[in-house]
Amino acid sequence: MRARSPSSPSATQALHQTIREVLRNEILSGKLQAGHQLRQDALAERFSASRIPVREALRQLESEGLVVHHLNRGAVVAGMNVQQLCELLDIRVALECHAARLAVPNMVERDFEAMDRILTAYAASDAVGEWAEYNRQFHLALSAPANNGRLRRLIEEYCLNTDRYTHVAMSEATGRDKPMEEHYALLAACRARDVDRVVRLLEEHINHTRKELLATARSQQAQADLPVVELS
């Protein structure tokens, strides 16, 4: 993607927002992997921009935890350890459960149909990479009827930020069936307008992800600690 060079302060502002959104989507989709170097001169050339909007876009991505700066390497796509992921999942519980309390009383049939369409596509997909996207869409559809744009943006940020790290590990640990079962239970509780049940199921659903991540990390650590046996 190439953008026009800014000719005014407002154009500069719009350009750094465009650069941020493009890079953000590429990071969250996995196109730019953890550790990928984000060189300002290369990005400036790519977007036909000066380094000023590039630098501002990288600063904003850093504030979201998507980019980190290293002394010798400059800006790179951030990685995330299990502890950091668990912290983000704790935040997701707080945000999404609050949104659910606001959303469920406002839900109408088109909201239920939207969630059902997402789950139908989810169930039909055999591509692991698509599962995270359907999961993201379902959680955003669940919170949308809260009618709170700021809350939705926060949920989208933390939902996306964890999904780019967790969907492969979760798919390996649980497959598709368990998350799908939990999603359908959430949809049924929404249709029944049982707010307390929705909140309880949602908290359990997110915490299940947390537990599976910790279990996977323990298993990987145990494998790493196994002595190497040489066969003669």
Quick description:
The chain is mainly alpha-helical and about 230 residues long.
Binned, the helix content reads over 70%
**Main sheet, how many strands, which sense, barrel?**
2 strands, antiparallel
Strands of the biggest beta sheet: in what spatial order? 1-2
- Protein structure class: mainly alpha
List unreliable stretches of 5+ residues. 2-8
| Cα-to-Cα separation, first versus last residue | 56 Å
Tell me, rounded to a whole number, the average pLDDT. 85
* Rg over CA atoms: 20 Å
Return the string of H and E elements: HHHEEHHHHHH
- Total beta strand runs: 2
Describe the structure.
This protein is mostly helical. It contains nine helices and two strands, in the order αααββαααααα. It has helices at 9-28, 40-46, 51-63, 82-103, 109-124, 128-143, 149-174, 177-191, 195-225; strands at residues 67-70, 74-77. Strands 1-2 form a two-stranded antiparallel ribbon. Strand 1 (67-70) and strand 2 (74-77) form a beta hairpin. The termini are far apart.
What key attributes describe this structure?
232 residues, mainly alpha, two-stranded antiparallel ribbon, globular, disordered N terminus
How does the SSE layout of this entry go?
Blueprint: H1 9-28, H2 40-46, H3 51-63, E1 67-70, E2 74-77, H4 82-103, H5 109-124, H6 128-143, H7 149-174, H8 177-191, H9 195-225
Antiparallel strand pairs: 1-2
Helix pairs in contact: 1-3, 2-3, 4-7, 4-9, 5-6, 5-8, 6-7, 7-9, 8-9
